[in-house]
Amino acid sequence: MTMGENRIAFLFPGQGAQEVGMGSELAEEYDIVNNFFERAEKILDLDLKRLCFEGPEYDLNLTENTQPALFVLSSAINRILNDNGIYPELVAGHSLGEYSALTAAGAIDFRSNLRLVRERGRAMEEALPAGLGSMAAIIGLDLAQVENICSHVNGVCEIANFNTPNQFVISGEKEAVSSAVERCKKEDARKVIDLPVSGPFHSSLMEPAVGRLEEALADVEIKDPDIPLVANVSAQKTSDSAEIKENLLRQLTSSIRWVETIENIADWGIDTFVEVGPGRVLKGLLLRIDRSLTCYNTRNPQELEEVLEELT
Question: CB within 8 A of 50, min separation 6: which ones?
Fold first, then answer.
């Protein structure tokens, strides 16, 4: 925790937060960002820095590249915050962000986790042949409506993310998701967005990826974290390494319970959040869950300076 009176949680973004150019301004200002990318490139033999700073967008958006790219940048920003005396009381991450949160909390070392997220990305990409699964965001319907629609289409269509009280992500077989999207439009959803992802993440169709992730996890030492993690699959605090490992496996085929995660953290008395990584997706979700909470972004040097001024 910091010297001030703020009680702080760090939130780490997942896929969807990436964009070409991410981290480039921070790298000009902070050598540590370049150091993290250079370390990562040696570990993976992958030109991550160029991918993040210059693209091409298609390559950055490949799951097996997106996941390590986000992990490295979030880890670098976390280090800058720590070096300036800003530590959270709790950490949470959205999907892939849970891995960044675990390294920030001291549960998995950077090198092991970088290899792990690369393998996770590949396992997710290859769990189903390309084009057979899809995901879509549904905005403006309530939970009961979305659950009802998912249960009445032919094929696999499940709620993957509970992002806000009226924003959900559905995931499953392409035809089933398309059919659900049409029904959501008929029920006057405010917005329906097909997501540019390579598979039906956080659905039962990810089952083939579980065995691969389990193999990869067998080689990774997970310690009890120094800072409690609020897990996606339970929305509860955990500091137990065995439970964390189990949760990471369950997370592939389970829903991301983000609304409960934020509500629980707020109920535990934390009112200040820092989104540690590129984008501002999580801040947007947070304010739709509870407008009384404060959230800072860290996408560029200006935003990071504001965090350092306010919270140290």
Answer: none
